[in-house]
Design brief:
Order of helices and strands: HHHHHHHHEEEEHEHEHEHEHEHEEHEHH
Structural class: alpha/beta
Number of helices: 17
Distance between the termini: 73 Å
Shape: elongated
Number of strands: 12
Radius of gyration: 28 Å
Length: 512
């Protein structure tokens, strides 16, 4: 049988026009595809304060979004073959807009009042609008097909437009929207645009089914967001940030990022160190260098800049360069936490690994690792290659100290200690005796630990005395004791650093 060419597709009942023209079709496909990616990226940021910004969280959100795209594409095509496609576009846009606009209030309320339901509700707030929006492309494609001879052209063109829309949504969100607008504002605005698009489609097809009601729901979602729990003092590019005053200390402030206490700053007394791990950092650094001697320091991660302030106060003339990836946190340091330009602290908004690469060899006495995304050290700051760069930046007698968090079997902390052993001649670990296996009567609970490494021997007796003087309750181990504690843990490399899988988070996320 000869191939069929140019055969027309069956007309829509009643002989009415089949649907949108080529430009309108492209706009619908482009916009709906872009909206799916906006929802996906913003959902990650909305969930971070409650589920953490981990590989597992990212994988879950991406998986749900892809499921929504697959299901919506299949369902949209199937329904378009059975129902007049012109009746489907408006409701798909409008209903997805309502769900998107309600998402901030619903998720934050669920997180506070029914946390066990958060993952289910979060899945629905991504799955429902993602599926509805993904259904638009096959519906529009159905309307644009008028002849079998142009099937490939129409399908290919609209598929390409949808892909470009997804790219545009990704770039717009990551580079523009998140840096300028709160996540609730992005979602409510997107919801309003989708409902407006629904109204326009219904107007062109002379249908006014439910747009006014949907618009009222979007407005209600915006109002609900203003009273929903979980608000931020500032939504930075990476965090939901708050500054909490200490009721027991007039000048005390706690910087809270995504629900976790990241830094405690005393505005009047930078030598006051509230958190145990910061006192431990101060103890080992003060034991390693002569008292009062100014240092050249590089800090990977800034937060509230507690430790750079301490060095500036106790070692006049110290020059601290800080790599802090979140410019919003830096603004909070200046506006809310009293960072003065003359403090001897130079903060650069940059990734810590890239900041290391820009440093001159042998230019620093001290490198401090205190960068966190949630409770996890960013994996690319944990590897042998990263530590090789740290070693390059340090002077011959320089010191590297790093704050870690781990729980359970402490698999990540053990791997990181093994990693430092690949790069430095002398490595030691400070922490709670139970976590170091020094107290057989107590099971390890985990929490903060401090690793220190150098090309020279560190006076561990002096370090232990300093830890005791600061009432940390911590012990310090090295040599065979540390080797035994590390066990068979493998060093981390750029090629294999499963930090998120090694970490065992604490059940409570109240602080660091």
């Amino acid at each position: 049988m000869a191939p069929v060419t140019g055969s027309p597709l069956p007309p829509v009942a009643g002989g009415t026009p089949r649907g949108p023209g080529p430009r309108a079709a492209a706009v619908l496909v482009f916009g709906s595809s872009a909206a799916v990616l906006v929802v996906e990226i913003v959902a990650l940021r909305l969930l971070a304060p409650y589920l953490g910004l981990t590989l597992e969280t990212s994988t879950t959100v991406i998986g749900i979004a892809l499921t929504a795209i697959a299901f919506g594409s299949w369902l949209g095509g199937r329904v378009a073959d059975r129902v007049d496609p012109r009746r489907l576009i408006g409701p798909a846009l409008g209903l997805s807009g309502v769900v998107v606009a309600l998402t901030p209030a619903v998720l934050r309320t669920t997180a506070e009042w029914a946390p066990a339901m958060l993952l289910l509700i979060a899945s629905l707030t991504i799955l429902v609008p993602g599926a509805l929006l993904s259904a638009v492309t096959p519906i529009v494609t159905k309307l644009r097909l008028t002849s079998l001879a142009e099937t490939g052209t129409v399908v290919g063109r609209l598929s390409g437009v949808g892909t470009v829309g997804a790219i545009a949504g990704t770039v717009l969100t990551g580079f523009v929207l998140v840096s300028r607008l709160p996540v609730s504002g992005i979602l409510i605005g997107l919801g309003a645009l989708l409902v407006a698009g629904s109204a326009l489609v219904e107007w062109r097809t002379r249908r006014w089914s439910g747009t006014p009601a949907l618009a009222l729901v979007v407005v209600a979602g915006g109002l609900a967001t203003t009273v929903a729990p979980g608000g931020c003092d500032a939504e930075t590019r990476y965090h939901c940030a708050r500054v909490v005053a200490d009721p027991d200390r007039d000048s005390g402030r706690t910087l809270v990022l995504d629900g976790l206490r990241h830094s405690y700053v005393d505005l009047d007394d930078p030598t006051f160190l509230e958190f145990t791990y910061v006192r431990a950092l101060a103890a080992v650094v003060d034991a390693a260098f002569p008292g009062g001697e100014p240092l050249a320091a590089h800090h990977l991660g800034g937060g509230g800049l507690t430790f750079p302030r301490y060095l500036a106060a106790t070692r006049p003339g110290t020059r601290s360069l800080v790599s802090e990836i979140d410019g919003g946190v830096v603004r909070i340091d200046r506006d809310r936490l009293g960072l003065a330009p003359e403090a001897g602290i130079d903060v650069r908004v940059e990734d810590g690994r890239l900041g290391l690469r820009r440093m001159d060899a042998g230019s620093r006495d001290l490198v401090v690792g205190d960068a966190f995304g949630g409770v996890s050290v960013p994996w690319h700051l944990t590897t042998v290659e990263a530590m090789t760069d740290v070693r390059r930046v340090l002077r011959e007698d320089g010191l590297y100290v790093a704050n870690l968090i781990d729980h359970g079997g402490l698999a990540f902390a053990r791997a990181e200690a093994a990693t430092l052993g690949e790069t430095f001649a002398h490595v030691a670990l400070a922490g709670d005796p139970a976590d170091l296996g020094l107290d057989p009567s107590a099971a390890p609970e985990g929490g903060n630990l401090v690793l220190l490494a150098s090309g020279r021997p560190v006076d561990l007796r002096a370090a232990q005395e300093a830890l005791d003087a600061r009432r940390t309750g911590w012990r310090i181990v090295t040599g065979d004791d540390l080797t035994s504690w590390i066990g068979d843990a493998r060093p981390l490399t750029d090629d294999h650093a499963p930090v998120d899988q090694l970490l065992q988070p604490r059940s409570s996320r109240s602080g660091r």
